[in-house]
């Protein structure tokens, strides 16, 4: 099982789509609201949603279920 973080913020409709993709595939993930951290806001402010794995690899939006599976199988 992959340890995943989804960088997001409230009111982000693209982030809701990313969550739906993760949920549809049965992934367990934690969310990190970039609005709670200035460093995260600077890093991800215009890039969210972003999925990050335990190795530090990132998959930025846009992505679909196939691209997410490929990203996770490449580790």
User: What's the name of the CATH homologous superfamily?
Assistant: Glutaredoxin
N-to-C SSE string, H for helix and E for strand: EHEHEEH
Classify the helix fraction into a percent range: 25-40%
Structural class: alpha+beta
Second-tier CATH architecture: 3-Layer(aba) Sandwich
Number of domains: 1
Figure out the total of helices. 3
Q: Ends: how far apart?
A: 12 Å
For the residues shown, what is the average pLDDT?
Answer: 95
Strand content bin: 15-25%
Indicate the CATH topology: Glutaredoxin
Layout of SSEs?
Layout: E1 4-8, H1 13-24, E2 29-33, H2 38-44, E3 50-53, E4 58-60, H3 65-73
Parallel strand pairs: 1-2
Antiparallel strand pairs: 1-3, 3-4
Report on the architecture of this protein:
- With 75 residues, this protein is α+β, with helices and mostly antiparallel strands.
- The chain has a single domain (4-73), classed as Glutaredoxin (3-Layer(aba) Sandwich), CATH 3.40.30.
- It contains 3 helices and 4 strands; from the N terminus they run E-H-E-H-E-E-H.
- Strands 2-1-3-4 form a 4-stranded mixed β-sheet, covered by helices on one side.
- It is globular and about 30 Å long.
């Amino acid at each position: 099982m992959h340890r995943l973080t989804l960088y997001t913020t409230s009111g982000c409709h693209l982030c809701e789509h990313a969550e739906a993709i993760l949920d549809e595939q049965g992934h367990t993930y934690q969310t990190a609201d970039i609005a709670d951290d200035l460093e995260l806001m600077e890093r991800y402010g215009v890039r969210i949603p972003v999925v990050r794995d335990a190795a530090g690899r990132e998959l930025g939006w846009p992505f679909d279920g196939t691209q997410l599976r490929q990203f996770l199988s490449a580790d």
